[in-house]
Amino acid sequence: MTFTxxxxxxQVREVMRRTEDFAPTNALxxxxxxxxxxxxxxxxVRFALxxxxxxxxxxxxxxxxxVVGRFFTPAKVAAIxxxxxxxxxxxxxxxxxxxxxGPVDLADAVAxxxxxxxxxxxxxxxxxxxxxxxxxxxDSLELFWGWPDPDRQxxxxxxxxxxxxWLREEAARARGTASLFGVLDAAGLDAxxxxxxxxxxxxxxxxxxxxxxxxxxxxxxxxxxxxxAPEADASGAPEVDAFGAPAAVPWAALAAHEKxxxxxxxxxxxxxxxxxxxxxxxxxxxxxxxxxxxxxxxxLELSGRHPAEAGPTAYSLAFGHGLHRCLxxxxxxxxxxxxxxxxxxxxxxxxxxxxxxxxxxxxxFQAPLTVTATQGKP
Length: 378
Hints:
This protein has a single domain (4-231, 240-375), classed as CATH 1.10.630.10. The longest helix is centred in the middle third of the chain and has 37 residues, at 191-227. The strands form four sheets. A four-stranded mixed beta sheet has the order 1-7-4-2, with helices on one face. The chain is of the alpha+beta class and 378 residues long. The chain is built from 14 helices and eleven strands.
């Protein structure tokens, strides 16, 4: 598949704003065509992803967005902060115990545990066993945003089918409740629409946030290891980048909330876990003086190649823009900042250990798969 890549922040915002010319109809379609055997596996469980939220437009999209947004209001996100800190401290106690015996993978010990529990509490839905949830999430990301060959597709499709059956059972159990699935059912969504929304909301609500935490932890430790203390400018103050983050911060300094927040925002601007997203041209149109034919596949760069002077504009694009801006943006940033802050406070002597990690590299998702660290002197 050939994409027209749009990287300039102004143009990215324009594409997302011009919903009459560019639609998210391809946002959730597989990057590579699914083989007939793969489709048969999915069809056996009546797997269907009708457009509801991320891939939908129009009045229906606005209605569903309003319903879902009520579960992630600024007040509800702020209220969950103490719980995030509590969960982080619980997991960091486990990590600290492990560090007494050698290096610990923070991705496994800390980052993967917190977002699923937070999402469950906000939406009113239990999550499956963590290992199962992570397998389903990662397999689905690879199936739809990776480049699996036909044999690999079948393995991933079996996993996606299991996930879909679980979602359908949860949607049935939720009818008449105040949980997210129950409210969506009461709003008139049919079972396939509830499952379609849940399929990617469950993944986005925890897997991509865990990925963002991985990257923020890794870059916090990597920057401190590589650069040491930040250099000062002529006034004696540490040099900062366009996002207010020192160019190189000692790891322990990230225990301060404002420094952790600036660090996370820089990560969002430079290598967010969701670094690209797709759009399709609905008709022949123009963008920045160039013509785009109807049906053109467009890849929007949400982070990674924006000029430093873009500052907050580049950061904000990590969560999209306009009618399709991520409803969980505030929550994802909050969780990541608090986990980084609590980790630096609890384990100020951390440093990276072993070889550089392998990274997840999919069309729209990226993150280090491990963040292996050891405890040195603060």
